[in-house]
Amino acid sequence: xxxxxxxxxxxxxxxxxxxxxxxxxxxxxxxxxxxxxxxxxxxxxxxxxxxxxxxxxxxxxxxxxxxxxxxxxxxxxxxxxxxxxxxxxxxxxxxxxxxxxxxxxxxxxxxxxxxxxxxxxxxxxxxxxxxxxxxxxxxxxxxxxxxxxxxxxxxxxxxxxxxxxxxxxxxxxxxxxxxxxxxxxxxxxxxxxxxxxxxxxxxxxxxxxxxxxxxxxxxxxxxxxxxxxxxxxxxxxxxxxxxxxxxxxxxxxxxxxxxxxxxxxxxxxxxxxxxxxxxxxxxxxxxxxxxxxxxxxxxxxxxxxxxxxxxxxxxxxxxxxxxxxxxxxxxxxxxxxxxxxxxxxxxxxxxxxxxxxxxxxxxxxxxxxxxxxxxxxxxxxxxxxxxxxxxxxxxxxxxxxxxxxxxxxxxxxxxxxxxxxxxxxxxxxxxxxxxxxxxxxxxxxxxxxxxxxxxxxxxxxxxxxxxxxxx
Length: 471
Known about the structure:
The chain has helices spanning 72-81, 87-97, 109-131, 145-166, 170-187, 194-207, 225-239, 249-260, 263-277, 283-300, 302-308, 319-324, 333-344, 347-369, 387-398, 400-404, 409-419, 425-454, 461-470; strands spanning 15-19, 22-26. It has 471 residues and is an all-alpha fold. Strands 1-2 form a two-stranded antiparallel ribbon. β1 (15-19) and β2 (22-26) form a beta hairpin. α7 crosses α9, α8 packs across α9 (263-277) and α10 packs antiparallel against α11 (302-308).
């Protein structure tokens, strides 16, 4: 059960369990505090490299050993069961959660890894800037005073970076030169389709100024972070031509930049995330995700499914933005960050795979024990039904009557707009867990009913395993 934050922001962790009737337990809640981007303490332009704290130790109990290695399974379970991590831990945790640092790396190895990532990023960025010198600067038409201010703060940051490099020791300079040579050899053979890259930059230059400037992280001196975000997105598009850039990536990447507050760390963490989810930005990925959401909705509410899902699924595509950006605009900002790490820990998805394996083992045992007697094959739990799909379905079910009254796409758009920033995360998480649990439980009972028709058994072994997984 995910721990949640109650309205009074009381301290403590929720202790809950799941019985045969569904999720039960008291939600005392974890302490809710404001994210680093909201507390007004960090609105400066993000530096190129990480602060020293990025290589610090994680203080979560049992997650990091004496040498600094992270137990990835425990980290993911901790994030899920505690409803996220505190804002103070978030930046460091994300560097492991999203793969920038290998969980197997030690505290001594990580500064060296960081140096290598920094040099590689600088070489990569310099390569596209040399090929397209006209794209180094965002083109301004003079009508956006905030962007003009952003350029000023960005230039000041560039000056600080140059001075910092000038004061590097001779030994450090030699080491960096060697790493630069390695990086140049690594990227020497990479060629760009300049026409496609220029088109990607054109779209990026439209989208970056639209990034949510109401966030404190992008206000005042933090306006320069828009230009940092632009450089990260162009570098990603240049070196990932199979993905390039698609609308929505600016909002997604801005979340990493706000939490990590480092250009290099944001690039590598965002790249690792996109290695897993870049398909969602393509047409095939969009259609596949909508197919899965429609299939899940049909399982949970056939009537609502028939109302929303047409042959071409145009009506339900409004859900794609929710899933693509992990409900970034549907919840209050600090809650949206917390939800993003909960969804990214993949805890329930891993559980669903364990459930499916347990059912398979039960079927095998039953098959061989019955010798020639056949057992009716039951539909397996669909492990493609990830927790985010259940989250989306929960929002649809909670607004069932409003959706049933929508008869055209305009009304659906108005409906989705009315939800932005208005939903309660704690309540939605709890209901999502209930739907997920009931789906697994229903499949378990279907399987046990099939067994009992063939042979009476006093030991409901699978259900016992299922309950243990959720306890």
